[in-house]
């Protein structure tokens, strides 16, 4: 599906450039003037050093992009259950984040599918007082009935979908009414065409889209085109490097937490081909070569 997505995105870019219009104009036209986006920020560590780093990044994000929505961990490895100290540290970090940003900002948490249903529900109930915008992947994504159990026990929105592919895998989530928000990844779910169709299916269930995008600037550009023409779009994920990272001739700009509606033809970008060639380093391992294992040698979720 990732290979199909690449071809699909290229075809939308080519056809948009052929007709001289943004791709969203060929997909039904824009339904909004700007696209809300969130940044990755959180307090991972309550030590003095950890708090200082978190404060610095928050200041930078608020100054550079005026973000009004952020997403973070819990980071680290989580087993089927953990002692109170580990749970309490995350809960305290979540409430501290709320204190820092105030009540006009949205805070989301990504459990990354590493909790059991019982632990996810326990932690969600602990943080509900600071009003999270959503918790993402509280548990793994393969069992929509288990996801529904979590959703029904939690008073705020649950999100999932970055590892689900095509309309057919999302269908089961929709029919179970298992979540409030879906997060298809445009570069893995089958491409812009598939993302738009998944969004339409979701609309009938009053489910909103918050497309996953942790890859890079071409994927983000493809997301923005679909976000523009999807009525039930909620918010767009992006990582700092996704805004351009020197790979685009013009980086995307975040202002007051929004990216302006793209106006250029196709995906609205021109790639700096020379810079892209210089930047390719397939030997880079994002996890720094560390084996992601529990203390007993069993495999942990990142
Ligand atoms: Mg995620």
- Name every ligand kind in the structure: magnesium ion
Helicity, as a percent range: 25-40%
CATH architecture: Alpha-Beta Barrel
Element pattern in H and E: HEHEHEHEHEHEHEHEEEH
User: How confident overall, as mean pLDDT?
Assistant: 95
Radius of gyration: 19 Å
CATH hierarchy class name: Alpha Beta
Q: What fold name stands as the CATH topology?
A: TIM Barrel
Main sheet properties: 10 strands, mixed
Proportion of residues in β-strands: 5-15%
Structural class label:
alpha/beta
Morphology = globular
How many β-strand runs?
10
Topology:
Elements: H1 2-19, E1 34-40, H2 48-65, E2 69-72, H3 84-101, E3 106-110, H4 117-127, E4 134-136, H5 144-153, E5 158-160, H6 166-175, E6 181-182, H7 192-203, E7 208-209, H8 217-228, E8 236-237, E9 254-255, E10 258-260, H9 273-279
Parallel strand pairs: 1-2, 1-8, 2-3, 3-4, 4-5, 5-6, 6-7
Antiparallel strand pairs: 1-10, 9-10
Helix pairs in contact: 4-5, 6-7, 7-8
The protein binds magnesium ion (MG).
Magnesium ion (MG) binds next to loops.
Please sum up the structure shown.
The protein is α/β, with parallel strands linked by helices and 302 residues long. Helix content is 38%, strand content 11%. It contains nine helices and ten strands.
């Amino acid at each position: 599906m990732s290979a199909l997505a690449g071809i699909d995105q290229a075809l939308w870019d080519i056809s948009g450039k052929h007709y001289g219009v943004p791709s969203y104009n060929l997909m039904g036209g824009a339904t909004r003037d700007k696209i809300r986006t969130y940044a990755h920020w959180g307090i991972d560590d309550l030590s003095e050093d950890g708090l200082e780093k978190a404060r610095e990044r928050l200041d930078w994000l608020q100054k550079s992009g005026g973000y009004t929505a952020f997403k973070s961990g819990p980071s680290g490895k989580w087993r089927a259950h953990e002692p109170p100290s580990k749970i309490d540290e995350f809960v305290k970090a979540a409430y501290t984040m709320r204190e820092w940003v105030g009540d006009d900002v949205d805070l989301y948490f990504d459990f990354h599918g590493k909790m059991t249903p019982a632990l996810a529900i326990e932690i969600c109930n602990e943080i509900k007082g600071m009003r999270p915008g959503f918790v993402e992947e509280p548990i793994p994504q393969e069992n929509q009935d288990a996801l529904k159990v979590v959703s029904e026990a939690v008073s705020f929105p649950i999100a999932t979908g970055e590892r689900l592919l095509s309309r057919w895998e999302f269908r089961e989530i929709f029919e179970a009414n298992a979540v409030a928000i879906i997060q298809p990844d445009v570069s893995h779910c089958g491409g812009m065409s598939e993302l738009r169709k998944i969004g339409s299916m979701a609309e009938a269930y009053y489910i909103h889209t918050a497309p996953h995008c942790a890859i890079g600037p071409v994927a983000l550009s493809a997301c923005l085109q679909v976000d523009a023409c999807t009525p039930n779009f909620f918010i767009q994920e992006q990582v700092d490097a996704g805004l351009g990272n020197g790979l685009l001739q013009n980086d995307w700009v975040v202002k007051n937490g929004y990216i302006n509606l793209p106006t250029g033809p196709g995906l609205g970008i021109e790639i700096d081909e020379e810079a892209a060639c210089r930047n390719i380093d397939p030997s880079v391992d994002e996890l720094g070569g560390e084996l992601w294992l529990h203390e007993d040698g069993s495999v942990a979720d990142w």
